[in-house]
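Listing 4. Sequential folding, example run.
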Amino acid sequence: MSTDLRKRKITYTIILTSDSPAASHRRMHIRTGALAVVSFVLFVAVICYAVYSTITMGGYVERSAKQVEQIVQLKEENEKLAAENKTLGDRAASLEETLEKKEEQEHELVAAHEENYIPRGFPMSGAAQILEEDTAAEAEGEQAEDEQAEDDNTLKVEAKDEWKERIFVSTEGTKVVATAPGTIKEVREAEGEVSYVIIDHGNGYVTTYRNLGSPIVEEGSQVLKGVALFLVGEDNTETGYSIRKDDGYVDPLELIEIKG
């Protein structure tokens, strides 16, 4: 009797019922071993899911931490780049300002250089009288008798009206001088003709000095303002002076700066 009880297997019965009056009852018999296997499988599945969830969450947390770290690093780099950009912007502005000042200074230097080469100087080293047309006519009338007694071939410096030339009369011992820096473009000294010196000032201005004396400069040489071109003696007190600007002539009195 006891042996039969030990060999008897325990089973569980599940009864499925329905609310419908016509429905029949269904019974399911589940053995203890099968129930244990199902329970074990479910337990293992839960454990696996828990382990998987833990690993997944751990990886997510680690990735989130790395992403936060990257965001912080990118933010720091962005701030650093912004600071560098501002520094570069300030340097660029400073360089632009320096360049503008340099260009302004260069323009001023060029303007000063061009101004220095404009023939504004007085063509004589000392005092001189500018022979006006009326004064010349009066002087010619007073010396008419003397001129008749002299040789008809006496050479004189007569103003060239088409050049707007001015005649300067100075005393012996003075000098005919360059009115601005430049290059001696041409020198001519011929017997029986008025000698002349032409200076190219390099900015469109060309000056011509005509005198009965002998030029004391050489063609092609560089001269500064005030350099002597002729020495005025007893027989060459008159000097013709004219200024050409590009293709036209300028009245010297419009440019000459007379001081004192």
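-- end of first protein; second protein begins --
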Amino acid sequence: MSTTPIHRAVLHDRYRAGASPLEVVDDVLARIASADSAGIFLHVETPSRLQERVRALPPFDPDLYPLWGLPFAIKDNIDLAGVPTTAACPAFVYAPKQSATVVERLMAAGALPIGKTNLDQFATGLVGVRTPHAVPRNAFDPTRVPGGSSSGSAVAVAKHLVTFSLGTDTAGSGRIPAALNNIVGLKPSVGLLPARGVVPACRTLDCVSVFAATVADAQTVLDCAAGYDELDAYSRRITPDEQPLTRIGVPRAVDLNFFGDSAAASAWQAAVAALSLCGVVTVPIDMSAFFAVARLLYEGPWVAERRAAVGRFMDEQPHALHPVTRSILDGASRYTAVDTFNAMYRLADLRRKAEQVFAPFDALAVPTAPIFPTLADLAADPIGPNSRLGTYTNFVNLLDLAAIAVPGPFRADGLPAGLTLIGRSGSDHALARLAARYFPASGGVAADRTAGKES
């Protein structure tokens, strides 16, 4: 399999030199065929269909069409017209006549959809193994989890099969797999990217997310896809906050928990040191309120919102669900409407406390993934490692924050690590600018080291 990156700048230079997107499409299909991609893609477009898409492209003009000729993948809970959507549950399948709003916008910017990718079923999980299909293999170590729920989308980018991909993020699904595969994972402000045409997990919290090998590519995709959609009840008009981010809160020592993973702990210290080279000041903060919010997501009635998203299908075909997914959604029955309102009141109180802690800072920086579980770990305990992975991600959507996961210095065992920068709603561009400065300071370009250990 070719490990040559296919970043936007690389491909556009090729196009300027006279290359055709048909050549790129053929190359991408060859990469997918040689990558043992059974666990990555649930659907790959036919060569003839891709050729039709290429022929429909306008003349090359990257100013008018910033994503012109760029191959991308779509998580299979996001609609692509004429291609089945399953959310990794074959019995749930339907054939959308219209693409999701974000997909339409990306194609209008010149991007070429290559196929649909695997996920934790119904986007319920952070590990990437809760699928009835083959599990996507982690780009660095096939004995480790790929991260979820957007597992296939992240691995497709990490293995240089596509330039970028779409995932979704409700509790960290656009960040955890980025960290575990050494790529960028951009989780936008809630409502900045429309979710029309996306199978919901928690509709009030869901975000369409972006995976890319570089911050610049992720930012370009965000710019092309963002914008209000009046047909999406949860789409929002968000005013960008362009203030520079110079004072960064980081977890105090007592709030750092790597669950015995010393390699992750050391990598985090190196990541903070690299961040300090970016002209920012890092100050320890009390994370207690943020952790309390995180616990609400799975220990509170928001699991009932996940159950509502599946709806009648689970009532009629409970055994069509992955056993772990079904057991999680079954837990919704223990919550009442009173529990839900009490949890909303609790969240409001915690949000105010978190705002007070956040107030003196421009952004936060946290470890993205405090552990790096093996497949054997998940076979022995399907729930525990998943819960630990969400330690520093679960609170972000509930608190209406933006985030971007960026590769950092590698662990001592050669596995990827990184950090997540978190900002207030609307800070997406400012976060990306800081992430772009941090990326070189952290030790290099992700794409040059990604997939270096695949087998």
